[in-house]
């Protein structure tokens, strides 16, 4: 898997990937709403962009986990 950020990612996707890489070391579950608050995006924007990351090959695995109050993502480095 690639550890570099692919050049074909959007700015928002790069921001989300960087955020997850930095925080997945100490945390496993992330809510779209909370990621959005940290990055200045809506939960909907996070969800739409994280799906592209979920299906690509990077140094992290992203799995949709739950839907309570905001989609929850399970992230494993």
Supply the key terms:
alpha+beta; 43% helix; 3 strands; three-stranded antiparallel sheet; 3 helices; 77 residues
Please render the helix and strand layout as text:
Layout: H1 11-23, E1 29-31, H2 32-39, H3 43-54, E2 61-66, E3 72-76
Antiparallel strand pairs: 1-3, 2-3
Helix pairs in contact: 1-3, 2-3
Explained architecture:
- This protein is of the alpha+beta class and 77 residues long.
- The chain is 43% helix and 18% strand.
- The protein has three helices and three strands, in the order αβααββ.
- It has helices at residues 11-23, 32-39, 43-54; strands spanning 29-31, 61-66, 72-76.
- It has a three-stranded antiparallel beta sheet with strand order 1-3-2.
- It is globular, with a radius of gyration of 11 Å.
- The N and C termini lie close together (11 Å).
- The model has no long low-confidence stretch (mean pLDDT 88).
- The gross shape turns out to be globular
Percent of residues in β-strands: 15-25%
Helix percent reads 40-55%
- Largest β-sheet summary: 3 strands, antiparallel
Q: What pattern of helices and strands is seen along the backbone? A: HEHHEE
